[in-house]
Amino acid sequence: MTMTSPAPGEARSPGLSYQDLHKNDSRPVPEVLRWVNWEFMGDTDIPVAAYTNREWHELEKEKIWKRVWQMACREEDVPNVGDTLRYDICENSILVVRTAPDTVKAFHNVCLHRGRLLREFDGPANELRCPFHGFCWNLDGSLKQVPCEWDFPHVEKDEWNLPEVRVGTWGGFVFINMDPNAESLESFLGDFPWHFERWPLEKRYKSVHVAKIFPTNWKVVQDAFSEAFHVVATHPQLLSSIGDANSQYDWKGNYSRAITPNGTPSPHIKYVPTQQEMFDAVADKRLDEEPSVVLPPGVTAREMFGNGGRATMHDVLGDKADDFCDAEFSDSIYYTLFPNFHPWGAFNRICYRFRPYEDRHDMSIMECMYLEPYDESKPKPPAAPIHWLGVDDDWAEAPELGNLARVFNQDTFNLPKVQRGLRAMTKPGVTLANYQETKIRHVHMLMNRWFQKP
Questions:
Q1: What are the pLDDT digits (tens) for 330-366?
Q2: 8 falls within a domain
Q3: Which domain holds residue 269?
Q4: Does the N-terminal peptide bond of residue 339 adopt cis geometry, omega within 30 degrees of 0?
Q5: What span, in angstroms and rounded, lies between the C-alpha atoms of 438 and 43?
Q6: Residue 87 to residue 79: CA distance in whole angstroms
Q7: What is the pLDDT of residues 190-224, one digit of tens each?
């Protein structure tokens, strides 16, 4: 009998598949977690220039950031009329403004007189006045006042509205697009919102927002948070309770998804951990600590995560919490909406955003937000302000991140060394796995399509 190798892209880990895990769930598993959608995208190397080249960065500025829908903020970041928020991407500065109780607009954050930034900081305003000479606009962008108006007879008031950018909302997020001819946000999203119908993000509030500056290209950082392939080397403490190589990857249209199961051992390890050991690994138990929870006889780690999650969510959802399965409280379900927006599914609170720092091709910003469910019978809690960390700051300086800060530090240790290695690399391309690095290849595939557009 002749053994044949699988066709390119068909190979999968010999460990337990994610779909196989559902067979032992204590609750019915929803369709969204049974959804599988993957197609081989090829195995061509990604040019090193995508991470190191200034000309590539300029191409991204013109073809991506000025033309693609991107998340600017949460709606609760501008809850009241007059609230403003500045969203910067490369050399562009966008001012998001709540102009009415049910209306959010966005403008280029530039005075039409001499080009000064109108606002440097977020916060409430009753007008948009330039600090340089005092030219002033109403919140809706219409011109309000021209100092020494007698000296500007050539300024037509109706033609001096602040230039608007397009605004759309989904999931409690505000998206902007600088291209007036772009497709609608609804068209760009496609069926992406279907994935969150069971876990509506608009019914959450931003309880944590931490941003850290990196001395690397933005895609170097984003790539590191787009796969579980690195866990075996970077996060070995997790291996007894994470099915890293058993992760499922999917993509469609402008989004991709990875699901990494927890409460199940990595296929990389050679021993079979107990259910208690798997639970303790996810709970971040130290060797000299007692277990935070002792599993009852016959209860699996995944079932215990489910039981604990349902008990916690009872305070918010009432009896509806009982309808959610173990997987929804156990697993890492992380999406990417092109080009840089990463909300997590189910009841994991994480949401990432990655972007260039200022107009630098060799520096970037990583943001981590926690989106928390809340009791809708009470007022929505206020959004957490952003907590900035510099290049040399430790993630642990943001204690609001909890245990995640230590994991981030492990990732952060690698990234400047990746950027340094890319600059020294003699091989012209970065080689990706066919399956486990699907989300990375998907972003580059879409980026190349945008580059080709006139």
A1: 999 999 999 999 999 999 999 999 999 999 999 999 9
A2: no
A3: 18-63+200-452
A4: yes
A5: 10
A6: 16
A7: 999 999 999 999 999 999 999 999 999 999 999 99
